[in-house]
């Protein structure tokens, strides 16, 4: 058989074929049928051509992609994959052939709206999508923030503003060994936290052939099941390790005469650590912009890496670095150096039968760096870091380093750390765990501590018990602000403010959508953030450097204060800021104009879409908050809307795979109007899961290349 498509009641594809390559072709085809518009948006984003149909708003991303040479890096990684792993290369090639076949049959209304026709995928396109999806995932722009902060407030401020984890990443995952379950077999559960997109960033899918039969969450546009999978005898899941593996180098560049063929007078040289000037690669590219004029982008690459900020004349608008020579910044990251994205791990993961197989596959993992949990039906468990982190100076890890000074080179790779279980449990929630030696900032411990405490509250667990942990809304980080409220002198407060304070001190600290107290707490928290951000002590940091727009979210003062609020309120001293006065003013402000409703009235889902829907959706109000296990992240001081949250939830049961469960924020189909476009959203919001169907007789066989909305 060339590849059969079956679907369960939720429209989730179950694919069956005679070989891994035929299955990859079927996966590419069904993904294109279900997610044609999403795939083409991602392909263009990986190439830096999305502004050609999305318009000027997409230009900053396209400029970054061109300057960072992401498409060229993907091609380089593809060439290395062909050379070193021809089997995987053939498998990826089969997937892209399936995508091209599916795109030819797919219908998506967005194409007509934009005038875009589906293009042709190259074998390297999935590698480009993987790279573009994860290039900002490790948060290297945080180094720009630390540099900016240290320049205006001193090096000590860097620690004060550390959230112990940037507000852009996070996930939960936990493993309960068989000794702690009712079946005697392990359970793995969790939820990856990402920016919520419509269509979703994860695709529920089943891939079956004589070699393997795997259910899991795939990344649309990438073959296999990389992050979350269950083969029947072994299951695995990951979270972001919060490792630091990308460096930013200050570069000194100069233009010279005789740029070579086709570019006279445009050659560029970079000052190296040996004190000599070395030629840098240079060319220009043109970005087409729908509704605007084409934009020319100068692409420069030094021996460190592509220049993503500035150039020989300084920053993008010609502004030199404060107190120094013109600034250019080069990005160095492992795939650009090694030509390896870790795709060699994907087929071994599908073929895994035991924890040892997953472990060996993880040795081939490269990007991004993850913490991995796995368990098998023989009682084996695994808790380790997977990915490539360079060995280099401590300065590289924290801030920008000068390319012209020695001592900042890469010197090999760290051995990925490993950890065990504690009382039959392992928890990964981006905290300082096994990956601690590899990172700088991690997530606050609240989610990990809460999951561990909940699991400790019962001796035996089942797969059916896990949604109660997924949806826990206790906000431990509220303590810092509540302690400040408790310490206020009540005689200095107005009557309404004193009543509001007393009400918040009685609050159960749960960020439930139907809680008016949670809404009041969030309002006070946001007001405190704004009062602190307005203090003259932070005035200089409120104006970001003239860096490209794509880096601005990491440099915005209000979100930085919002995510670091717990530290800023508990530090011994804060640059002379009268924090009790700020808390008092915020309390009075909210007491005078209290929220009219509940937390869910303002804390609503705000997904990213490449195009606005033709019929606006009423997005749901949400429970949860940034430091809750139910991590639905607002930006305190800026908005209660949640653009980030659980991009999927899963429960892998090693006793019976059919007792496993999963859910995504919207549905299996990316086609507006399809019955499976948004049919899982009510369940996702409520914390419910849909069953993983494994019986082929319970599935509907789909004939032909029929689009999912027909």
TrEMBL record:
SUPFAM superfamilies: N-terminal nucleophile aminohydrolases (Ntn hydrolases) (SSF56235)
Keyword flag Hydrolase: yes
Entries under InterPro entries matching the protein: Ntn_hydrolases_N (IPR029055), Pen/GL7ACA/AHL_acylase (IPR014395), Penicillin_amidase_A-knob (IPR043147), Penicillin_amidase_dom1 (IPR023343), Penicillin_amidase_N_B-knob (IPR043146), S45 (IPR002692)
UniProt keyword annotations, A-Z: Hydrolase, Zymogen
Family, similarity comment: Belongs to the peptidase S45 family.
Listed PANTHER family: ACYL-HOMOSERINE LACTONE ACYLASE QUIP (PTHR34218:SF4), PEPTIDASE S45 PENICILLIN AMIDASE (PTHR34218)
Protein name: Penicillin acylase family protein
